Amino acid sequence: MSMKQEFVDAVKSGKVLAKKCTKCSHLHLATVYFCQNCGAKGFVNEILNGTGTVATYTIITVPPAGFEKYTPYAWVVMKIDDSELRVSGFLGGIGSPSQLPMGSRIKITGYDDRGILLEKQ
User: Fold this and answer.
1) Which of 5, 10, 28, 100 could form a disulfide with 17 if both were Cys (CB 3.0 to 4.6 A apart)?
2) Cβ distance 85 to 16 under 8 Å?
3) Are 54 and 102 in contact (CB under 8 A)?
4) Number of domains present in the structure of the chain
């Protein structure tokens, strides 16, 4: 199974697949070959809860082709709880900043053609 498929499968169950350095325990999101912190090459899988807070976002009211039916929505950068990792994803029904204050609690609910799906907690 590919790393991308493992990541998607974790997201579909509301989790995040991370790579933890076996030397310094630094967490990484993507497929990595060297630890960004210490340079070591050893990693183990770490499953993180798919909950966190809004770090930043943009509201989409003029969508790209194929996304018209989802408008308006927010493309959100989420800081994952208990880590410094961030993932970005789709949060539907957001038309104004008052609907999604910075720091709002959100969670991963799945994955589809829009990417990682998020919802407010």
Assistant:
1) 10
2) yes
3) yes
4) 1
Residues comprising the chain, all counted: 121
pLDDT at 2 over 90: no
In terms of residue numbers, what domain contains 28?
Answer: 3-120
Give the neighbor-by-neighbor strand order of the sheet with 27-28: 27-28, 15-21, 43-49
At 46 the pLDDT is 94
Which tens digit of pLDDT belongs to each residue from 47-77?
999 999 999 999 999 999 999 999 999 999 9
Q: Is the pLDDT of residue 108 over 90?
A: yes
Q: What pTM was estimated for this model as a whole?
A: 0.89
Q: What are phi and psi of 107, to 5 degrees?
A: -145, 155
d(CA 7, CA 16): 7
Q: Model confidence over 85-96: pLDDT tens digits? A: 999 999 999 999
φ, ψ of residue 11 in degrees (nearest 5)? -60, -40
In sequence order, the β-bridge partners of residue 21 are 43
> What is the rounded distance in angstroms from the CA atom of residue 112 to the CA atom of residue 97?
25
